[in-house]
UniProtKB/TrEMBL annotation:
Biological process, per Gene Ontology: maturation of SSU-rRNA from tricistronic rRNA transcript (SSU-rRNA, 5.8S rRNA, LSU-rRNA)
Organism listed in the record: Cyberlindnera jadinii (strain ATCC 18201 / CBS 1600 / BCRC 20928 / JCM 3617 / NBRC 0987 / NRRL Y-1542) (Torula yeast)
Ranges annotated as biased composition (Acidic residues): 36-63, 70-83
Region Disordered: start-end pairs: 20-98, 296-318
Protein name according to UniProt: FAF1 protein
Gene Ontology cellular-component annotations: nucleolus
PANTHER family: PROTEIN FAF1 (PTHR28096)
InterPro entries: Ribosomal_biogenesis_FAF1-like
Length: 318
């Protein structure tokens, strides 16, 4: 019994240290009355053993009730603390901007407001400003020079010897100018100009080929393909790296500057695979639109055979 009383006293002290006494919280502390009743019960004679046993049972029940009440109060206080933590606190916004300039609403926001839509904040594009160093500029310059050297290596290979006039022109121009001279210089400039024109024209305003019989042009194309194949095989055997050629183009081997003005730069046999098959070629009538089939009067006359016949108009001379 004494151990139980000590445990209850320790629990009461712990509760008062955390939450305060029951009297401060507005409740009646019945444990003090229990202590007084216990002190009075100690002065009673031993003749009332049966009454003592009954009072002990009542005290046990009372203590159990007090423990349950204390546990309930503690659980209620914990629940109130959890609710206080979970309830959202109001956010405080402080306006410290001292500027009084008015920034008007943009036209896009006005249109959205009139249409009843909410304004959407656009995401700022992620920009990675990596500062360019001297090494990057030098690497880019070296890459361009290497690309140009590979594209013009065939021209340099075909013209390894210089004439006296070429050497004289180099001495007159000085050492600061481009090292290419004579035909090599002309061929290199021609290839660079062609490359620039292809980049800027985007397939428009290309120079037309020279007029010649189709059989002659086909023969020139076949012979040029054989020369290109031989040139690539010799370069492969010698371990020479050649510049890449896009699909459907003929390689420039640098022997003749004007050869592409006669046969062109495209290999149409390789380009045929790029175009999709559109089915049978049937002479259709009219044109299909989203509103339906439209047949013109010209198509009707052509089918009926009542159209105007082409020919010279015979009339009297004036």
């Amino acid at each position: 019994m004494m151990d139980y009383a000590k445990q209850m006293e320790a629990q009461r002290r712990a509760f008062e240290a955390q939450f305060g006494s029951l009297e401060e919280m507005g409740f009646e502390d019945k444990t003090k009355a229990v202590e007084e009743s216990e002190s009075d019960a100690d002065g009673v004679s031993d003749s009332n053993d049966e009454n003592e046993n009954a009072s002990d049972e009542d005290e046990d029940e009372f203590h159990e009730d007090m423990i349950d009440r204390v546990d309930d109060e503690q659980s209620d206080s914990d629940y109130e603390e959890e609710i206080a933590i979970q309830t959202p606190q109001p956010t405080v916004i402080k306006f410290r901007d001292t500027t009084r300039e008015y920034t008007g609403v943009s036209k896009e926001d006005q249109k959205l407001l009139k249409s009843g839509k909410a304004t959407i904040k656009k995401k700022a594009p992620i920009t990675t400003n990596t500062p360019k160093t001297k090494e990057d500029t030098e690497d880019l310059k070296n890459d361009l020079e290497l690309q140009r050297f590979l594209s013009e290596s065939n021209i340099l290979q075909q013209h390894q010897k210089y004439s006296g006039a070429d050497l004289l022109s180099t001495t007159l121009e000085g050492t600061g100018t481009d090292s290419l001279v004579g035909k090599v210089r002309r061929h290199a400039l021609k290839s660079r100009i062609d490359g620039l024109s292809e980049q800027t024209s985007h397939g428009k305003n290309r120079s037309k080929l020279e007029k010649m019989p189709m059989s002659m042009r086909k023969g020139m194309v076949e012979s040029y393909k054989k020369k290109v194949a031989k040139f690539e095989q010799e370069a492969k055997d010698g371990g020479i790296i050649l510049a890449k050629v896009s699909k459907g183009q003929l390689r420039d081997i640098g022997k003749k500057v004007t050869i592409h003005e006669r046969i062109g730069k495209l290999d149409k046999s390789k380009l045929k695979s790029q175009y999709r098959k559109k089915g049978l070629k049937i002479n259709s009538v009219g044109r299909n639109t989203r509103n339906g089939l439209i047949i013109s009067q010209k198509d009707i006359d052509r089918i009926n055979g009542t159209g105007q016949t082409k020919g010279k108009k015979h009339g009297k001379r004036r």
